Automatic annotation (TrEMBL):
Gene Ontology terms for molecular function: efflux transmembrane transporter activity
Compartments reported by the entry: Cell membrane
Membrane topology field: Lipid-anchor
PANTHER family: BLR4455 PROTEIN, OUTER MEMBRANE CATION EFFLUX PROTEIN
A family per Pfam: OEP
Family: Belongs to the outer membrane factor (OMF) (TC 1.B.17) family.
Coiled coil region boundaries: 428-455
GO cellular component: plasma membrane
Native species: Pseudorhodoferax soli
Predominant location category: membrane
Alphabetic keyword roster: Coiled coil, Lipoprotein, Membrane, Palmitate, Signal, Transmembrane, Transmembrane beta strand
Name of this chain's protein: Multidrug efflux system outer membrane protein
Domain of life: Bacteria
InterPro entries recorded: MdtP/NodT-like, OMP_efflux
Length: 470
């Protein structure tokens, strides 16, 4: 009769739990992954389905630029950049949480000791105070019959893997930003040199025009025009100096140094331009650590939905304790003072005001968020690769066209100089020819810089490399 009194409520609770646990909420259809294209729009590579490869070796891709200064800056940034350090700390935090989740599945053993004084037993002299000394070991173990602890451990493991992928993504981002900032600075060095050469040329023209004006050969208008050109180009050179200073300070932050103590001396731009084949296989998208991190976060969210569902099932724990208890310290560890106990604890909430339903709805919503984030990362990966492949193709064509423009403008400037000295053209025509040459040379430098930027951008879009065998 007593057994029925205990078991009947438990069976009723399990029946209620089974009725309350509904099916796992499905993610909205709009969060489905995009259809994988057959090939890159800008190449003949075919897409294939492969496992995530966020831990794949990327190699020192920046060595392809054959620039020792760039290599040194990238390595310093990888070691000292604050974003990388923060991502590494978050990975350590995630791994600690994983160990904590794994510890929940292991037996828990502890020891303790205590002393208590209070009212003792009734005696002929009345109730006398008494002391009780205890020393014991405790044991507990939760039976994970419904997989709650296992799924929580799996979710924590996926979180740690996602953090590892995000650390790799942060490293790649910092490497790419360092390379792009450095290459922009070097392009600016060449542009500054070109503008200063132009200023020097205009200074020569100004001196010549000043002598001719003093001799009465030209009008004051011609002299003022040359003075205006000199001043305008000097102002442009100063603007480029300001921009270079800003880039140098940005590099200091990237390599984890104070801008006040960081300097990078100007030098000619000698970096090589790696050629990335147009037929890069689409499998390299599996190397993108941000995509892998989003996928792992999605899987962790799925595991947490499972954890939320187990709230409708009972928690069962085995407990035990053993030790000694005595009123006399000298008798505490005698065999006659031994004490022990074992037990099993079962807990199951019946009515909680909708708390479990709310937790499940929250976990399902987090799953939807993770699914949308994963879909966004995949779409962004497709776009990034297509953007950079298209940019490299079009910039190559633009560089060729701009090269022809520079050749023609240089020739026109030389012819105008000769004709001006012979008195066949006006000074206005000469200045126009020189302005055209300067404009085309600077545009050629900007196109070259854009090619380097797009190359680094494609490296980043491909997850850190472009080897076909990777």
């Amino acid at each position: 009769m007593r057994l029925n009194f205990i078991v009947t409520p438990l069976l009723a609770a399990l029946i209620l739990a089974g009725c309350a646990s509904g099916p796992l909420p499905a993610a909205p259809a709009e969060h489905a992954l995009p259809t994988v294209p057959v090939a890159f729009k800008e190449g003949n590579a075919r897409f294939t389905t492969v496992a995530p490869a966020e831990q794949a070796e990327r190699g020192a891709w920046w060595l392809g630029f054959d620039d020792p200064v760039l290599g040194d800056l990238v390595e310093r940034a990888a070691a000292r950049n604050t974003s990388v350090q923060e991502a590494a700390a978050r990975l350590a935090q995630a791994r600690a949480l994983l160990r904590n989740a794994e510890a929940d599945r292991a037996p828990q053993i502890g020891i303790g000791a205590g002393a208590q004084r209070g009212a003792g037993a009734d005696t002929a002299q009345g109730r006398q105070p008494a002391s009780v000394l205890t020393a014991k070991a405790n044991f507990s173990y939760e039976l994970d019959l419904f997989g709650r602890l296992a799924q929580a451990r799996d979710a924590a493991g996926l979180d740690a893997d996602a953090r590892a992928a995000l650390l790799q993504s942060t490293r790649l981002m910092v490497q790419a930003e360092t390379a792009q900032t450095y290459l922009t600075l070097r392009a600016l060095d060449d542009e500054r040199a070109l503008v200063r050469q132009t200023v020097a040329a205009y200074d020569d023209t100004l001196r010549l025009t000043q002598r001719r004006f003093d001799a009465g050969d030209v009008a004051e208008l011609d002299l003022v025009r040359v003075q205006g050109e000199v001043a305008a180009n000097e102002a442009e050179a100063l603007a480029l100096d300001r921009r270079r200073t800003e880039l140098e300070h940005a590099l200091a932050v990237l390599v984890g140094e104070a801008a006040s103590s960081f300097t990078l001396a100007p030098q000619d731009w000698r970096s090589a331009l790696p050629r990335i084949p147009a037929g890069v296989p689409a499998t390299v998208l599996a190397r993108r650590p941000d995509v892998s991190a989003a996928q792992l976060s999605l899987q962790a969210a799925q595991a947490r939905v499972g954890v939320a569902r187990t709230a409708w099932f009972p928690d069962i724990a085995l407990t035990g304790s053993g030790g000694f208890a005595s009123t006399d310290l000298g008798d505490l560890f005698k065999w006659s003072a031994r004490s022990w106990g074992i037990g099993a604890l079962l807990s199951l909430p019946i009515f909680d005001g909708g708390r479990r339903e709310a937790n499940l709805a929250n976990a399902a919503a987090q799953l939807d968020v993770a699914a949308a984030g994963y879909r966004a990362q995949v779409l962004g990966a497709f776009r990034d690769v297509e953007d950079q492949l298209a940019a490299l193709r079009l910039l190559d064509e633009q560089a060729q066209a701009q090269g022809r423009a520079v050749t023609a403008a240089t020739r026109a400037s030389a012819l105008s100089e000769t004709r001006y000295r012979n008195g066949l053209v006006s000074q206005i025509e000469l200045l126009d020819a020189r302005r055209s040459e300067l404009r085309n040379r600077r545009q050629a430098l900007q196109v070259k810089s854009a090619q380097y930027q797009a190359t680094v951008g494609l490296v980043r879009a491909l997850g850190g490399g472009w080897d076909r065998g990777a």
